[in-house]
Amino acid sequence: MTPAAVFYYDLGSPECYLAAERTMTELPAVPEWEPVLASDVCRDDASLAPAPEWDALSAGVDREALAARVASAGLQPLRWPVGWPPDARRALLAATYAKTIGRGVAFSLAAFRQAFAGGRDLADDRTILIAGAACEMHPAALLRALETRSVRDSLVAACQRARDAGVRELPAIAVGRRVLSGPDVVAQAAAALR
After folding, report:
1. pTM given for the model
2. Nearest 5 degrees, angle CA 4-CA 167-CA 17?
3. How far apart are CA 126 and CA 14, in angstroms?
4. pLDDT tens across 60-117, in order?
5. I need a surface site. Which of 46, 110, 157, 174 has the fewest CB within 10 A?
6. What is the CATH number of the domain that holds 57?
């Protein structure tokens, strides 16, 4: 069965964090959550290589405006992780694994909250393990999964699916063949799904 909507996100993005929280309360149904690397969505080479593009993405973030939007959504105040933006590849591998065992949404919300409400670094395995513990993922199994080729290949495939769907920026929500993106993506998706 094809989902009514697919939410594409990168755990290192504060815009994706805000959209993730809003998808849970503002959409008529929870979309399929698809973790992807922001740096790979717009590239032809989905290699999971380090992402210098994050520097450009972080330069355009208006922290005060984003903090005001987070506050107006009734969320905990933003706490920026030291060294933000992170290398979120391992956290996204963990989200990819969590999705395969039915805990993708729970893990991703926990990881977003650790990063942007708790100020923790997503590149740190301890942060990943805390997010995993929040949704009852065994720590040894989670760490093993981060090293497997199947999980890595699944993340690469998700990035390719996002590009094939027409995703060019995050956060994005695909409703049918239409891809919506940007800061107001959840409101746009809610209107499209009604």
Report:
1. 0.90
2. 75
3. 20
4. 678 888 889 888 888 889 998 887 888 899 999 999 999 999 999 999 999 999 999 9
5. 157
6. 3.40.30.10
Length of the chain: 194
Each residue of 26-50: pLDDT tens digit? Answer: 999 889 999 999 988 865 544 444 4
Could you give the CA distance from residue 122 to residue 37 in angstroms, rounded to a whole number? Answer: 13
Contact 114, 120 (CB under 8 A): yes
Residue identified by tokens 């409400």 is: 117
Residue with tokens 């060294």, as numbered in its chain: 83
Measured CA angle at 165 (ends 161, 169), to 5 deg: 95
With 0-12 / 13-18 / 19 or more C-beta atoms within 10 angstroms meaning exposed / middle / buried, residue 1 is: exposed
Structure tokens at 79: 């706490």
| Residue environment code for 103-120, b if the CB has 16+ CB neighbours within 10 A, otherwise e | bbbbbbbbbbbbbbbeeb
Query: Do the beta carbons of residue 8 and residue 173 sit within 8 Å?
Result: yes
Q: Which helix (H) or strand (E) holds 9?
A: strand 5-9
